[in-house]
Here is the input.
Amino acid sequence: MRKFDKAAYALAVCLISLGLALIVLPHVPMPAGHAAARETPDALMAKLTATSGARPPEPDYSAISKRPLFVAGRRMPPPAPEPAVAAAPTTAPLPSLVGIMIEPDKKMAVVKRVNDAKILSLEEGQSIDGWLLKDVKNSKITLQSGNNQQTLALPEIGK
Here is the structure.
């Protein structure tokens, strides 16, 4: 028998033995003094409150958090200063223009989002990522975000 076959055989025997143990052991009754036969913590707590009428006080662990065991000097280090956060841009990322479709009753622009490169079609008056599609012409569109207005032109073919 090759080494690999011996290892596979040994693994199979172990797994079968474990499976049999998991099937048989839950059905074996425990002796009266065995730890598994004792009452659960919830049952003991219910019995305690029934006899005394009140729950015991919760332990106070605040000393552990004030004087941690595994910190030198048993004092918490001062909190690290928060890193400076860059100011958020005042305008949303500008989508790129992929195509334009003009019909007698509607004008649409096909744009690609910057965040996830998802391609969407918008009619005049619809918004994408904070940009409102204000105007659609034959080869360009006008987007507005707040007071900021941007014009996007279709890319030239072959460039």
Q: What stands out?
A: Residues 96-153 form a domain with the SH3 type barrels. fold (CATH 2.30.30). The mean pLDDT is 78. The helical segments are 3-24, 41-52, 62-66. The longest strand covers residues 96-102.
